[in-house]
Amino acid sequence: MEEKKSPNEKLQEKFSxxxxxxxxxxxxxxxxxxxxxxxxxxxxxxxxxxxxxxxANVIKELIKDGFKDIDKLTKVDxxxxxxxxxxxxxxxxxxxxRNMKKWQLIGxxxxxxxxxxxxxxxxxDSGLGMIKTHYYGGVKKYHWVNTPLALHGVAFTKEGKKxxxxxxxxxxxxxxxxxxxxxxxxxxxxxxxxxxxxxxxxLNILVAxxxxxxxxxxxxxxxxxxxxxYETYGLIEEDFACAELELVPANRPMDIGFDKSLLAxxxxxxxxxxxxxxxxxxxxxxxxxxxxxxxxxxxxxxxMGDTGAASLILQNFAHxxxxxxxxxxxxxxxxxxxxxxxxxxxxxxxxxxxxxxDSSNASYLGKGVSIxxxxxxxxxxxxxxxxxxxxxxxxxxxxxxxxxWQTGELGKIDIGGGGTIAMFLSKYGMNCLDxxxxxxxxxxxxxxxxKADVYSAYLFYKAFFNE
Length: 467
Ligand code: MN
Ligand code: MN
Fold this sequence. Notes:
The protein is of the alpha/beta class. The chain has eleven helices and 22 strands. The strands form five sheets. Strands 1-2-3-13-4-14-20-16-18 form a nine-stranded mixed sheet, sandwiched between helices. It has a six-stranded antiparallel sheet with strand order 8-7-10-5-6-9, covered by helices on one side. It has a three-stranded antiparallel sheet with strand order 11-12-22. The longest helix is centred in the N-terminal third of the chain and has 19 residues, at 28-46. It starts with 6 loop residues before the first helix and ends with a helix.
């Protein structure tokens, strides 16, 4: 028999916040959609591990859906779909709305922490062919030892031929590895502080062991490595200086848990938001305002550089857009009235390390897309702090579409911090906030999300574009 609720209980229900797992809110049909969406995402992220691969796949999807290269157009109108490729490392794409004078923009980043090859990387030591690396982004360096790695990127020969390199993704292809020190001899190493347990200059990978059988050659294993690269790709040692070669974990995206509710993969920060916002953009039909998807590089090193969000790529795209739509409107006017979402991941509550979070202001796996008013560190430095007005507007969208969502901060005050591209969007005067799934093991070779949150993020991005 159901007990009758007291007046205070009823009142409490009205004004208290009690976010439940979004898994409980899905019916069977919705659950099916959540898992189906995760399958598509798994395929995408498995082939999009570097910024160049990710952008190539984004562009492939855009073209398949009828988006046209902005550089080949002279005029665009409501209903048209356009994109701008920025040096194969960033893309801006738009579905022109009925009202062309306002953008609903979602920005995400395509780069993830990794190991880049040094300009002159090949050497020989102790009978092994080795390659030197320089880590990119915020990594715990000790994650990268004993982890099978794949190599991707581009290089140029002296004759100017562009060579694409990709080794280690297929089962029958070789991988690369940084061997850690055995515990038996690690007494001194274990006394080092964690950031120095593995140091930057110790991130050298194994690439060969067979020496050339020729006494006239000095470094016989290095010879083997260079010969392989020359015969396979036409590359000589100096060509590495004209290359962007990146090592990423060779692992495949995988389901996690008895119930397969979780998904682990490398590079989910921030390719999970890239995929969810791209899918949302591709499914738009005749939106009210122009929907813009922005996929940028270099977020992990502060968004600097010619393909990062701190550059003028958004402004340049807005300029092209205003010219092509023949709007009598300045770029500044367009950007200032627009709304933006910085689609990026945040930290989820990790049961093994709960003390870094304020439990009532943290995100939890499975409780929906995380909406964050601000990020940054210390006294809210290096972030964009969204206005109450904009938060209320976004909550309105979430409520209207019945989308599971939660809110909180990255972690406890003064314990650390992290930035996103939000402040590089809001600098134009547009509204902005951060929204994306929360994640465990962020910046590690194998990050974990809840499939429910990925789906909620996608639903939110779609609803936002449609506003
Ligand atoms: Mn990120
Ligand atoms: Mn990151």
